[in-house]
């Protein structure tokens, strides 16, 4: 099936809810733009997608995603350029990753035109919801779940793909206090850690809450075998600057391959920094800190782009890192990435997908 450009049937709202939105005071994840896209897969084929007013869905209690977790998602942001165009950051990479997750979870493969044209048409319709304010963006949530109403454990034969969006304010996150997790595991070799599969996040909530109760914002996951090697922090990839080099654990089956991660590494290479994608042991971090060589630590992900880490806790001790303003590499890359995403710096790597209204 191939869709003509902007040919997705749309039922539009009679009255937009945009006046409910206060751009200067956006509460994350609670206000949704007017429309959503819905495409169903059944009888071995994707049916014609539809755009409709954002609203509840009716589901059978036996909906298999609710029981056995065939449910995957993506997260991306759209920005408003100075001339009013909508700018998406690397949406094709989100599309490809959705299908990598789908494959691992034994779900139907989504065609590119449903994702990309659905996204484009939806954004044209909800263009007013992309905040013009600096630092703000429209967060876009594509996701897919199994819809068979059957409670036998087997891959579903029907799926629903949906995209909705919500405006988000500037991320003024304070620098994070994180703790290295010595017991719980997010992901093991051969598991599904590289997929954005719903269950991975559900299983991470308890360990994260326990860390929060101990006074840390977030935890650092370690490898499932020995808890010796650093994996990720919460739902962000993790990077360190040790002795001037940018170091991050390699993408593997246990680590989610972040699009922000890839972009940060590319920009750091462009700037001429040494970048190493290799295993990072907890011991190496502790030793580097002792020697005064641990210069920066930060998480990368769509939500925050770069989330600075102020303190890393391990084995009864807090390791405090240098002041945020002295962190050359992360600050430089964060600024450049922000400019590229909003159309204020040249897009040398063709990352930006522009929708001219
Ligand atoms: C989404 C996610 C990331 C970050 O990916 P981005 O593409 O940069 O947003 C990192 N780790 C996990 C576990 C994630 O779910």
Automatic annotation (TrEMBL):
Modified positions (N6-(pyridoxal phosphate)lysine) in chain numbering: 196
EC number annotated for this UniProt entry: 2.6.1.42
UniProt record, GO biological process: amino acid biosynthetic process; branched-chain amino acid biosynthetic process
Cofactor(s) required, per the database record: pyridoxal 5'-phosphate
Gene3D superfamilies: 3.30.470.10, D-amino Acid Aminotransferase, subunit A, domain 2
A GO term for molecular function: branched-chain-amino-acid transaminase activity
Similarity comment: family membership: Belongs to the class-IV pyridoxal-phosphate-dependent aminotransferase family.
Cited function: Acts on leucine, isoleucine and valine.
Protein's name according to its UniProt entry: branched-chain-amino-acid transaminase
Taxonomic lineage: Bacteria, Pseudomonadati, Bacteroidota, Cytophagia, Cytophagales
